[in-house]
Specification:
alpha+beta, 2 domains, 6-stranded mixed beta sheet, 6 strands, 34% helix
Length: 254
């Protein structure tokens, strides 16, 4: 890992810092202690501990209403994303906390990101049976066709274009050509099917705040179809991201 990843990667372009802490409760107080000052130091610390596997996990929030997809544009909304680090068959769990810093910064690096290790030496998370990216390619392709058709019938051509572009990614090699966040996709670690999924998810991610897919409304006959398609897309994109990211199994940190 080099500065080509941190801080140069586009994932960090609006981050003032990304650090890592240990977190635990002492009575009613949450106590945090420094673990690593940035992602490179974190990888180095894990390597020295003998960590051999990293896995991503996504889970829904505890609330039932409103749906996670309706809150994903807000900090802390949209469900929970965890990183599991495995060492000698036992797992630690990390979760990110995003806070706004100096809004007036000229470079727009306003986000202060802290990953807290909130569980240590736990049994590994029992995930569902490993899905193959190729299977999800078919599922996403089918759904994107339906999303594009629905959008065009409702006069939402801008969204239809996004769904069509995402579907093109599923049938392209390389799939991330001319994509802004192409540096998120590690072609040296991931199989082509996983790269296609990540590229398509980036274009098909239409959930957010004002003006996004979440901000649409329809008549009583059409709204149920919109709700069903939207929920299916949100769940499938999250699933595809996890499957793609975990498809390399990562192995020993290098």
């Amino acid at each position: 890992m080099t500065v080509d990843f941190y801080p140069a990667n586009s994932a960090f372009q609006y981050c003032e810092y990304v650090n890592f802490v240990d977190s635990h409760q002492e009575g009613n107080n949450l106590v945090e202690a420094g673990f690593a000052s940035d992602p490179l130091a974190w990888f180095d610390a894990l390597r020295k501990r003998g960590t051999d596997t990293l896995r991503m996990h996504y889970g829904p929030s505890a609330r039932t209403q409103p749906a996670d997809r309706m809150l994903v544009g807000f900090v802390g909304g949209g469900g929970r994303w965890l990183v599991e680090s495995q060492t000698s068959g036992m797992s630690d769990l990390w979760e990110a906390r995003w806070q706004v810093g100096d809004r007036s910064r000229q470079d727009r690096k306003i986000w202060r990101v802290t990953y807290a290790r909130f569980a240590k030496n736990q049994r590994p998370i029992q995930s569902p049976a490993l899905e193959h990216p190729e299977r999800l390619l078919q599922d996403l392709d089918r759904l994107l066709i339906a999303m594009e058709e629905f959008s065009r019938t409702q006069g939402l051509d801008n969204f239809a274009t996004l769904f069509a572009r995402a579907r093109t990614r599923l049938h392209s090699d390389p799939p991330y050509s001319d994509q802004y966040h192409s540096d998120l996709i590690r072609t040296d670690l991931l199989p082509l099917a996983a790269c296609k999924l990540l590229a398509a998810c980036q274009d098909a991610w239409v959930f957010g705040g004002m003006g996004s897919w979440n901000d649409q409304g329809f008549d009583a006959d059409t709204q149920p179809r919109y709700e069903a398609l939207s929920e299916e897309l949100y769940q499938l994109l999250n699933r595809a991201i996890v499957v793609a990211a975990n498809s390399s199994c990562y192995g020993t940190l290098t």
